[in-house]
Amino acid sequence: MFEQLGLIGCGLMGGSFALALKRAKLVKRVVGYSKSPSTTERAKQLGVIDVAAPSALLAVSGADLVLIAVPVGASEQTFKAIRHGITDQMLVMDVGSTKGDVIEAARRGLQDQLSSFVPAHPIAGKEVAGVEHADAGLYTGRQVVLTPIKTTLRSNVQRATQVWSGIGAKVRTMTPDEHDTTFAAVSHLPHLIAFAFTSGIATQPQGERFLEMAGPGFRDFTRIAASDPAVWRDILMANREKVLLQSQTFRDALRQFEALLASSDAQALENAIAAVSQVRSQWQPGAMGSPE
Amino acid sequence: MFEQLGLIGCGLMGGSFALALKRAKLVKRVVGYSKSPSTTERAKQLGVIDVAAPSALLAVSGADLVLIAVPVGASEQTFKAIRHGITDQMLVMDVGSTKGDVIEAARRGLQDQLSSFVPAHPIAGKEVAGVEHADAGLYTGRQVVLTPIKTTLRSNVQRATQVWSGIGAKVRTMTPDEHDTTFAAVSHLPHLIAFAFTSGIATQPQGERFLEMAGPGFRDFTRIAASDPAVWRDILMANREKVLLQSQTFRDALRQFEALLASSDAQALENAIAAVSQVRSQWQPGAMGSPE
């Protein structure tokens, strides 16, 4: 049980965390700050936060739990803004989809308070942004990856595990590099592809007519193309080397499928699709083992 | 109201059509045939068809409505098999995702009975195949594209429109070429990409570990990768020129996004994502106008 959550960034991810903690009775009070005062005000109106703080530093002051839920590109300035409010008793976490760059930002921003920080990435989201869509159940049953580094206090990793488990998430740990490689492959690249695909359709002369005829397959395939531009600008930029590497692997695979089409080898094409279809049919979201 | 539906291919698409017609009381009796006797038997057990026919020709005999719901690559042999059972009073349709090749197959297979045939493509489906998944509501609210040709009887196009409207679908007509271009862009290419992407992940040494961590974005993006291999082998092969053309357009768009990443131009990347995100947010499935 925490006394006070200091929430920096009262959007979908941060707001959902606050609501989940309140529902699980894991926090007594939430003090929130967003860069935009109207967002902070809206979060208060919606009962997501109890008190609106006029700055990130004041949101942190007096908290025993801090969650930073800003686009990853704003991490360093956020860490710098709150550094003088961090105490040794605080647990500080983020929710960023990239970890290597956030950890570097924390090193530079938090300096001697780095041990309080447990890098965290909950594998959850919606294609709609904003505190209006905050949802106490967003993290229920979802995976959360913690990527502690050498300086991270072990007791803080334990506390972080308890918080996320307490709101129904499944926790596992990875190295930051393993995390960023994994999510370049299964999350960041799909977003890049969905952006490029939708752009490729929309910019054709007949694009509008094409879109009129698109069905349920298109709907699901491109759902992530509606994602928040600022959030995904930061994620793709932060992890761009690994994303570009994965994109190369994808291009090679696409070229192989194109070659099967061009060669009219129907049996080879069917075999290739059958292999993929089997992988995807057997896949289950979050089919991970027990929490670490 | 039809007396008898002759159903060739008692799978997901054909079975759902039979169930929908029965539910709407648009048919008195369904006589079904599938290449695999066990499928035909199962369709009968499930009440999808009333009578199991031992051949495609016998399934057609006595019918006033015929639906061919086989992988598009099997169209020609199916048309040939039923040709001598087709009368001038029959309305014959297919459900194939490609139209140019099916029409060619009908020309060769049906010959002087071609005027009875109304090429049809209902924009509906599931990532699971088989009569077990047949669903009377599969076509409700979905679009159905009819692609009549010069020889198609106008009265048959009207009857086809009535049948599909009668089970809750929205009907529009296009030329076969316009259809195949459109669906290469919004359906066939997404399948090819989803196959290639999933293959690219699964064949990496860490592929299994990657898949363990994949979340809801991956789930929706790759749903169509679980599609039926034989069905998609035929669709991609039948429409391969247009699909390869669309794939080239997609590759160019992907290259542009990669270049934005590589150049570290965060603002340009955000602008590009914002444009796409807006298109996708505003898109509605089946946002077509009134039926033609």
Automatic annotation (TrEMBL), chains A, B:
One Pfam family matching this protein: PDH_N
Organism superkingdom: Bacteria
Domain Prephenate/arogenate dehydrogenase: 3-291
InterPro entries with a match to the protein in the record: 6-PGluconate_DH-like_C_sf (IPR008927), NAD(P)-bd_dom_sf (IPR036291), PDH_C (IPR046825), PDH_N (IPR046826), Preph/Arog_dehydrog (IPR050812), Prephen_DH (IPR003099)
Coiled-coil regions listed: none
Key words of the record: Oxidoreductase
Name listed for the protein in its UniProt record: Prephenate dehydrogenase/arogenate dehydrogenase family protein
Source organism phylogeny: Bacteria, Pseudomonadati, Pseudomonadota, Betaproteobacteria, Burkholderiales
